[in-house]
Write a structure and sequence with these properties.
about 450 residues; alpha+beta; Dna Ligase, domain 1; D-amino Acid Aminotransferase, Chain A, domain 1; eight-stranded antiparallel sheet; 20 strands
Length: about 450
């Protein structure tokens, strides 16, 4: 087992890893920019190293600075959290070349799954159901129009290296294909340095279902059920729950087994998430995230496992601490992502926290790096907290979430908390009858007039 690990991240996910390490008796090293000198993850870690100025490219994305921090502190392994360098195959290779351990999958797995076309073809060969569409990159507009007619409109044009909603454009008919094709290519080029795109059938009322998988890198893997992440704004998840309210036990067992088998056959290491669109009882693969997810706490809640602890153990060469037949669902869990943003435009609102009080009580977890007097920097993502509740069933979880939101106090900045108060009044949310387009339609009617 490692004596010391470095966390190449910040905020609540850095705190999450520090806590797991401390419970395992492992010393932690926090890295930080000059803007994060007073951040909670810096205060909580056993050691800290300043690695650069505020812009992420000069600090949290600076591979030389992070490797140097490992060398000066004697850290043996690096946990990337999510975002920043967590899915950077070149970073993983450099980590390994320096004799360090990356707490996550191999560089090759990250590389394969990071390219949407290669990932889709790999999963198809492994028996994972995929969305109908082009078999590879689409070289020109004429070919795009041919595929659109073959697949049937509407279709969605996606940047091969896209993510976070960038480089994704819908063409409802042939007349819209040119705009969608050119715009997706341009966004792919400007955001990811790659203008290659591919085309998929655009499902009209799907849900976003993701399967949590975990592998030991030696041909053994398990699944930990699904999460429903359908409530999204501009392809960014807002509200997640597990298990999914629309998924039957038989469907869970079927798709879970398919995913576990697929990652076992490629000797996948650590935590990963296989993401699907789900419509009319069918699952269609869209991508695999080769890292820990923001919403991992709801899976931890219903299965009673510590995914970060397991990541560290497997990276150290130990066996997984559970087998598939030991993983049983207990109750229902929901997470809401709280951002420092002004409604209704969701504009970032960094600033000083004048008062912060986290809700508590049975089945309530608040993952946040906030504290009274803390100033949220302007340089990073606006996510400032995740409120997670766990209860015996879905109605009880919704009631607990409503109660916990009522206890939460965040003063000094505007947040998205009012959005969740409003959503919990909606019948579709109470019944679980929503899809990936529901929230955008609701926002147009209720927040934007």
């Amino acid at each position: 087992m490692f004596d010391k690990i470095l966390i190449a991240n910040r905020g609540e996910i850095a705190l999450r890893v520090i806590r797991a390490a401390r419970e395992m008796g492992i010393h932690s090293v926090a890295v930080h920019s000059t803007a994060d000198t007073d951040a909670m993850h810096v205060r909580m870690a056993d050691e800290s190293v300043c690695i650069g100025p505020p812009p992420g490219i000069d600090s949290y994305l600076s591979i030389p600075a992070i490797i140097a921090a490992c060398e000066v502190t004697g850290a043996q392994a690096i946990h990337p959290g999510y975002g920043f360098l967590s899915e950077n195959a070149a970073f993983v290779q450099i980590v390994e070349d320096h004799g360090l351990t990356f707490i996550g999958p191999t560089a090759e797995h990250i590389r394969v799954m990071g390219d949407k076309i290669t990932a889709k073809e790999t999963m198809r060969l492994l028996g994972v159901p995929c969305v109908p569409g082009s078999e590879g990159g689409v070289p020109n507009l004429a070919e795009a129009k041919r595929i659109g007619e073959e697949v049937g409109y509407p279709v969605i044009v996606k940047a091969t290296s896209g993510g976070g909603g960038k480089g994704m454009k819908v063409a409802q008919n042939a007349g819209e294909m040119e705009r969608a094709f050119q715009t997706a290519r341009a966004e792919g080029k400007s955001n990811f340095g790659n203008d290659e795109v591919y085309i998929e059938k655009y499902l009209t009322t799907p849900r976003h279902i993701e399967i949590q998988v975990f592998g030991d890198g030696k041909g053994r893997a398990v699944h930990l059920g699904e999460r429903d992440c359908s409530l999204q704004r501009r392809h960014q998840k807002v509200f997640e729950e597990a298990p999914g309210p629309s998924i039957t036990e038989a469907e869970r067992a079927r798709i879970g087994a398919v995913c576990a088998d697929a990652v076992a056959r490629i000797n996948y290491t650590g935590a990963g998430t296989v993401e699907f669109l789900y419509e009319n009882g069918e699952f269609y693969f869209i991508e695999m995230n080769t890292r820990l997810q923001v919403e991992h706490p709801i899976t931890e809640a219903i299965y009673g496992v510590d995914l970060v602890r397991e990541q560290i153990r497997v990276a150290a060469g130990l066996e997984m601490d559970f087998q598939q037949d030991e993983l049983k669902i207990n109750g229902h869990s929901i997470e809401v992502r709280i951002n420092a943003e002004k409604l209704p435009e969701f504009a970032p609102r960094p600033g000083k926290i004048t008062q912060f009080h986290a809700p508590g009580g049975l089945g309530v977890r608040m993952d946040s790096a906030l504290y009274d007097g803390y100033t949220i920097p302007q340089y990073y993502d606006s996510l400032i907290g995740k409120l997670i509740v766990h209860a015996p069933d879905r109605p009880a979880a919704l009631a607990r979430l409503k109660r916990a939101l009522g206890e939460l106090i965040i003063d000094g900045v505007e947040t998205t908390v009012p959005l969740f108060h409003a959503l919990l009044q909606e019948e579709d949310i109470v019944t679980g009858e929503y899809n990936i387009h529901w929230l955008e339609h609701w926002l147009e009617t209720n927040l934007r007039g």
